[in-house]
């Protein structure tokens, strides 16, 4: 057989993956300021010098650990009347299946680098969706930021602060509550 699937992963790839997994967990639990290279290395069961070797410093590690691809659906194939539901469902799946977003949210609240990373994700990945589906693309920044306020608010209360009523909602219940609001933000005529 030929191809990359036959090549065993290099030990350095496994080390990097272990460092990133430990960093995501530590940044999510402790925030950027309190997370240390030493603690992340201990969690990854490696020497702190290895973290520095691969990522240079805490900022480089943070950037790598919080690299986020929202894997947005192709909204050109989504019926206009389903945009809100598809977006909420997609984000709930991302939040529940990937600790990177929770880590980024925690850090974004307390650290300028985290806040900047959140803004980059917003501009690069959510704003284009709003431009594609809203009635007037010039309104896309406002509409996308309103959607972000809803989704980040839910994520904060559900996954970070763990408010019991928010955390207890099933995905279906959360979708039923939020989808109409996101739908309105994205597709309704400007008030």
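^ Assign residues to that structure.
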């Amino acid at each position: 057989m030929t191809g990359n699937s036959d090549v065993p992963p290099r030990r350095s790839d496994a080390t990097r993956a272990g460092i990133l997994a430990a960093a995501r967990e530590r940044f999510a639990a402790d925030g950027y300021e309190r997370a240390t290279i030493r603690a992340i290395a201990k969690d990854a069961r490696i020497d702190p010098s290895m973290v520095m070797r691969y990522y240079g410093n805490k900022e480089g590690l943070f950037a790598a650990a919080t690299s986020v691809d929202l894997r947005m659906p192709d909204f050109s194939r989504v019926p206009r009347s389903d945009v809100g539901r598809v977006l909420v469902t997609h984000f709930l799946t991302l939040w529940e299946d990937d600790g990177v977003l929770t880590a980024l949210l925690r850090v974004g609240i307390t650290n300028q680098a985290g806040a900047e990373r959140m803004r980059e994700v917003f501009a690069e990945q959510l704003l284009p969706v709003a431009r594609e589906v809203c009635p007037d693309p010039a309104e896309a920044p406002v509409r996308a930021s309103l959607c972000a306020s809803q989704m980040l608010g839910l994520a904060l209360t559900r996954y970070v602060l763990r408010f019991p009523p928010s955390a207890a909602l099933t995905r279906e219940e959360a979708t039923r509550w939020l989808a109409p609001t996101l739908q309105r933000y994205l597709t309704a005529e400007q008030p």
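The longest helix spans residues 11-34.
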